[in-house]
Amino acid sequence: MESSVIAERHGTEVTGCPVMHHDFSKTREMGAYWTLANELRETCPHFYNKYAEGGYWVFTRHDAVNDIYKTPEIFSSASITPWEPDPIYRFVPTQVDAPDHIKYRRILNPWFSPKAMEAAAPMIRETCRGFIEPIVPKGECDFYEAFALRFPTAAFLTVIGVPITYTDVFVGWVDAFFGGFGGDPEGAAGMATALGEMRVFWKEQLDDRRREGHREGDLFSYLLDAKFDDEPLDDDVLLDMCTVLTLAGLDTTRAELAYMFHHLAQHPEHRQRLVEDPEIIPLAVEETLRYYTIIFGDGRKVTRDVEFHGVQLKKGDMVYGLVSGANRDPRHWEQADEFVIDRKRNNHFGFASGPHRCLGMHLARREMAIAVDEWLKVIPNFELATDAQLFERGGGAMMSLSTLPLRWDVRS
Amino acid sequence: MGHGRCYSLAPQMLTSDDEGYVTIRGGDPIDVPDDLQELARDVEGTCPESAISLIDE
Prior knowledge:
Chain A is of the alpha+beta class. Chain A has helices at residues 32-43, 62-70, 100-108, 114-132, 143-148, 150-160, 167-179, 185-212, 219-225, 235-266, 268-276, 281-291, 323-326, 361-378; strands spanning 4-5, 8-9, 12-13, 18-20, 28-29, 46-51, 54-59, 75-76, 140-142, 227-228, 231-232, 298-302, 306-308, 311-313, 318-321, 383-384, 391-393, 400-401, 405-407.
């Protein structure tokens, strides 16, 4: 680990804080990012991560990450990527601060509330079965390709009122977008194309509702009726919102599902426990979100000069709360580095915390619980179908496997 | 909306409104019966927003 000591920064004496030069975007062996988070957290409560064009403060422990999330007036969401303090895009409502943020959230909240998801659950379960049934007799699959993105995509389309025949189209867009996330120039072109095509699709949907009239159970009709300060939402905001829902909800759920099924493939005792006691599946989902959190860290932009956990921050500085460090911090958790399948006091940050907590969390956790429940009903025993090393994407923000080959015995 | 961790863990004491925010059944605050004390501690410890506190009296 390369480190040195900052003697001076912005003319302020800062002692004992190392400077590091970590690249959090590169692909590493599966699990390496959580190991790195553990090392960073136990090495130093905070450090300055420097890269070619700039740098940002990383806070590695639970108490500081919690305080970042709970103090949005100091830690703005104007940028959530610390390596990009002035992004050219503005995701709504992700990058909107108070007072406007809550106005957008109040529009979207009822659509993704626990009650709305409860109502959608039978459809989600039906969709899930539709993906599992054809896989069962094969005895093997790449879980990542065959199920982990396709099911959440179809479920999401069902919830927003788009026919699930569009599943493959959306899968293509999401893959193309995240193919460009790592900075590969070839991927960047695909990312731009996917974003453009998505916006055309949303525009067509909105125009269709304007022309043909509104429909029941249709997010576009609902958004066209929504008011922000007594005014309808303009088209740019509507397109932004739809794009964010898609990008924030599908790839993330795929990643968490893959880590959860990897764990279950490796831990027959946990599969057995969930088969015998399906009531605890929701607790196992929460523990997955804690232990296998895909948010390596979460960025915020400092709004004013302030001393924070022993660091003098300046207005405009970027900070990075190491969520993966916080979620396994032994200062906060009992059995921090163990997967406790029925953990109850599980106030993890897997869906972030504070006003920007994940809008889709109730959909995501329900999809995960339904996936495990339905899968174990027909495939109670399965294992990894490869001895090869698996790798995970860093992406700077969201970890994800790239493949997960599974196999099981087919009952005759 | 809230995380919903509390009312999914203790539906006998807590429920949610249409936006997914918690409401306490039967008032705010409520007296926690003896047989639900342990569950109430779990609820306090499960909220990522630290929004629930048990008051010892």
